[in-house]
Design brief:
By secondary structure, the chain is of the alpha/beta class. It folds into 2 domains: 155 residues, SPOUT methyltransferase, trefoil knot domain (Alpha/beta knot, 3-Layer(aba) Sandwich); 76 residues, tRNA(m1g37)methyltransferase, domain 2 (Trp Operon Repressor, Chain A). It has 9 helices and 9 strands. It has a 5-stranded parallel beta sheet with strand order 2-1-6-5-7, with helices on both faces. Strands 3-4 form a two-stranded antiparallel sheet. A two-stranded antiparallel ribbon has the order 8-9.
C-alpha cells in the first residue's frame, strides 16, 4: 500500500477526482491512501501567509516555514520512521515524469507531494527537504495540484490489484519502452474499415508478432528516440530496417 500526502492551499480541488473510477476503487480496497493538508494550517503568522516577495525583486513564492512545518509534522505524527518515503516537489524544473520514474516512485510507502503555486518555492526547500523534483513536461501550469493528481494516477496503476488486469498494465505504452500497438474491438467491419485479418485468425503466435511489429512501427514514426533506449532483437532490427528501406511508415 502507498500513502500519498498532498500539501496544497487548495484542498477542494482533490475532493471529486479521487472518489471516482480506478483510483476511487483502489482507495476503497485499501491499496492506496490519499491525504490532503492545507499549508495555511502550518504557517507562523496571524494572517496565515504562505507566500512572500522574492529578495532582490520579483514575484511571490512559497515561504519555507509552512512547508518545513507541515512535513516535519507528518514525519513526526503521520509517517512511521521505518517507512520508505519520498518528498516530491511538483515543478517545471523537475525530471520529466515517465514510466520508469513512476516505477521508481511506486516503491515508496509514503509519498509527500508539495503543490507549488505562484512563481515557485524558496530554494531552501529544494536544497534541504525535497528528495525528488518532478515535472509533467516543458510548460508551466498555475500550480502543482494537477501534476500531483497525474502522478498519483500513474503510480497507483502500477500497484498490483489497482487495475483489473495486470496484463493491461504490462502492455501499456512505454511499459516495454515502446508505444502500444493498435487495438480493435467489435464490429470487425465498421464503415468499410476492417480489423486486420491476423487479429481474427486465432493464431496467437502471429498476433504477438503483429503487435510487436506495430509497436515498433508506431514508435519509429512518432518517438524514434525511444528505440535507442531499449534492447532490440535481431528480428526487431530487421523489421525497422525494412521500414526504412520501404519508406512506408
Amino acid at each position: 500500500m502507498i500513502n500519498f500526502h498532498i500539501l496544497t492551499i487548495f484542498r477542494k480541488i482533490f475532493s471529486e477526482y479521487f472518489v471516482e473510477g480506478v483510483i476511487g476503487k483502489a482507495k476503497n480496497k485499501g491499496l492506496i491512501n490519499i491525504h490532503t493538508y492545507d499549508l495555511r494550517d502550518y504557517t507562523e503568522d496571524k494572517h496565515k501567509s504562505v507566500d512572500d516577495y522574492v529578495y532582490g525583486g520579483g514575484s511571490m513564492i512559497f515561504k519555507p516555514e509552512p512547508i518545513f512545518n507541515a512535513i516535519e509534522y507528518l514525519l513526526k505524527n503521520q509517517i512511521p520512521e521505518k517507512n520508505n518515503k519520498a518528498i516530491i516537489l511538483l515543478t517545471p524544473q523537475g525530471k520529466t515524469l515517465n514510466h520508469n520514474l513512476a516505477k521508481e516512485i511506486s516503491k515508496f510507502e509514503d509519498i509527500i507531494l508539495i503543490c507549488g503555486r505562484y512563481e515557485g518555492v524558496d530554494e531552501r526547500v529544494r536544497e534541504n527537504l525535497v528528495t525528488h523534483e518532478i515535472s509533467l513536461g516543458d510548460y508551466v501550469l498555475t500550480g502543482g495540484e494537477l501534476p500531483s493528481m497525474v502522478l498519483i494516477d500513474v503510480v497507483s496503476r502500477l500497484i498490483p490489484g489497482v487495475v483489473g488486469s495486470q496484463n493491461s498494465v504490462d502492455e501499456d505504452s512505454f511499459a516495454s519502452g515502446l508505444i502500444e500497438h493498435p487495438q480493435y474491438t467489435r464490429p470487425s467491419l465498421f464503415r468499410d474499415w476492417k480489423v486486420p485479418e491476423v487479429l481474427l485468425s486465432g493464431n496467437h503466435r502471429e498476433i504477438l508478432k503483429w503487435r510487436r511489429q506495430e509497436s515498433l512501427r508506431k514508435t519509429f514514426n512518432r518517438r524514434p528516440e525511444l528505440l535507442d533506449l531499449i534492447e532490440l532483437s535481431d528480428e526487431d532490427i530487421l523489421f525497422i530496417d525494412k521500414l526504412k528501406s520501404e519508406g512506408n511508415f
